[in-house]
Amino acid sequence: MENLIIEATEENSFTSPSINFSAETGLCQIGGESFMNNSYEFYHPLIEWIENYTADVSRKIKFIFSITYYNTSSSKSLFELLDTLKCFEENGGELYIEWHYDINDEEMGDDITDLALSAEVDITLMPI
What we know:
Blueprint: E1 4-6, E2 18-21, E3 27-34, H1 39-53, E4 60-70, H2 72-90, E5 94-101, H3 106-119, E6 124-127
Parallel strand pairs: 3-4, 4-5, 5-6
Antiparallel strand pairs: 1-2, 2-3
Helix pairs in contact: 1-2, 2-3
């Protein structure tokens, strides 16, 4: 399976995160801000790719989020992404998720915690 790399373009560099998912190692890094109006268009290819990748539950996946801000539209897509990962874990896959955020942004820490509780996944908070 090919790696999945989605880089910000000039048009969306301030509204969309970059994504780098190594099919070989199972490491996915997502960083930046996520406040596009139609987050489905952006996140759907990632979710589809993960659904295909996680068909093999012997894989290990490590997600490192460094999203510093996300809007309501993005939260819905992030929930769907986390739900897809939860299904992978429930089927026997090994999953680890951490989220890096600004230690001074307590609201972001609370938002991440709420998202994790809603999706019923464990997210290790990494204040920096």
